[in-house]
Specification:
alpha/beta, D-Maltodextrin-Binding Protein, domain 2, 14 helices, globular, binds fe (iii) ion
């Protein structure tokens, strides 16, 4: 019969207690820095807390400010997770050494390869499709085909674009460079600039309003801006066109997240990330802003689904980051302000 070993018993008990106290000190809270605004993240965090008991504390700010803060705080950062609204900023955070790789079968299974970092430092959670929107009174959809075709002289003085300063357009042009090479991409962008009906506009909504008012015929925007505008005024003469369906597919970007390099609650943070990719949160994450779930097994919100389904560009979004600086310089050379 084994003899009772008092010393071992004490060690075992104190080990269990230390686990328990470590758990109670660290694992009950995850701290998130989010460039997605509160109303777009709180419903998912509440659902996570309800399911796991783990609290989520969050700070929202613009992406540049949050990344600068992570850099300044270094090892002392309270943040466990960074959420941004595009791949370019997640790529920049990863490159600055602010994120850490996450090996997770759940994430690998839920998020398609082209929507996550090949080094596993960030993961897309919702898809934002940047597509063509046209004036239904001035354009027949048979005239439209591709992003590249908007450089054709037939669109002279018919195109509106948002400013090149916005990361969405920088990502789009970066993907064109990845696809066609720099010289060909520059020709396309020069063609767009030659076709502008007006100076580049401050935001996607303004571009849509110009198209609706007949000041131009077609523009390039993220679909959720179209959705918001159409909910306000369903009578606007605007419609979605999905370009490049016979070749590269629609340019998509992501809202996504990564775990910070110095996270102190890594396990709980990974649990939150996995939760956000799952069927329990994917609809909350996407539908609240009229985006598309990143997890392809999740149904699209009916209001959004009514715009039709489309083939996405399957190129990995890491290219949007790698080629962002090249894209900015190219747009400048091409006179796209
Ligand atoms: Fe946006």
């Amino acid at each position: 019969m084994p003899r009772f070993n008092r010393n071992r018993f004490v060690v075992a008990v104190s080990f269990v207690f230390s686990l328990f106290s470590a758990h109670s000190v660290h694992a009950e809270e995850v701290v998130v820095y989010s460039a997605r605004i509160e109303q777009l993240i709180k419903p998912m965090f509440d659902a996570f807390t309800k399911e796991t008991g783990i609290k989520v504390r969050y700070t929202t700010d613009n992406e540049g400010a949050l990344i600068a803060r992570l850099e300044a705080e270094g090892k002392n950062t309270p943040a466990d997770m960074l959420i941004t609204a595009d791949a370019g900023n997640l790529w920049a955070a990863a490159r600055a050494g602010l994120l850490k790789p996450v090996k997770s079968d759940v994430l690998d299974n839920n998020i398609p390869v082209h929507l996550r970092d090949p080094g596993n430092e960030w993961f897309g959670l919702s898809i934002r499709a940047r597509t063509l929107i046209y004036n239904t009174k001035r354009v027949d959809s048979s005239e439209l085909s591709t992003y590249e075709d908007l450089a054709d002289p037939k669109w002279r003085k018919r195109l509106c674009l948002r400013t090149s300063k916005k990361v969405y357009n920088q990502s789009l042009v970066a993907m064109l460079i990845a696809e066609h090479g720099e010289a060909e991409a520059e020709k396309i962008v020069r063609g767009w600039v030659a076709n502008l009906a007006t100076d580049p506009l401050s935001d996607d909504t303004r571009a849509l309003e110009f198209v609706a008012a007949g000041k131009c015929d077609v523009t390039l925007v993220n679909t959720y801006y179209f959705g918001r505008l159409m909910q306000k005024d369903p009578s606007l003469p605007l419609a979605v066109f999905w370009p490049n369906q016979n070749n590269s597919g629609v340019h998509v970007n992501i809202s996504g997240a990564g775990i910070t390099r110095y996270s102190r609650n890594e396990q709980a943070a990974i649990q939150l990330l996995e939760f956000l990719s799952s069927d329990k949160a994917q609809n909350l994450f996407a539908d609240v802003n009229m985006e598309y779930p990143a997890n392809p097994r999740i149904k699209v919100d009916p209001f959004v689904a009514a715009w039709g389904s489309f083939k996405q560009n399957p190129m990995n979004l890491v290219k949007a980051g790698e080629l962002q600086t090249t894209a900015v310089k190219l747009m400048d050379r091409a006179g796209y302000r």
